[in-house]
């Protein structure tokens, strides 16, 4: 399940439990709208009790295929498990954005970094 809210040019997302394809169907229009509306967009992703993705959602998550993706400048991933940090490295080749991982106790730093 994901919760999404926006503040100015930043999209904030909290991912909980296991994400499925429907979560990405809700997320992609929000990101697309923001990337179209702003020259520089930041994306904050916080993983709480995150268990991963269903198979169909996993590939949708890696290959978002967003229009004007070059407007996505910074992505902060916040999590507590080593594989979440390693997932950040998997994302790097798929985006021109600067992607950075933060531990849960550093989430205030992550929010400051994406501003």
UniProtKB/TrEMBL annotation:
Matching Gene3D superfamilies: SpoIIaa-like domains (3.40.50.10600)
InterPro entries: SpoIIAA-like, SpoIIAA-like_sf, STAS_dom_sf
A Pfam family assignment: SpoIIAA-like
Source superkingdom: Bacteria
Protein name: STAS/SEC14 domain-containing protein
Organism (species): Bizionia sediminis
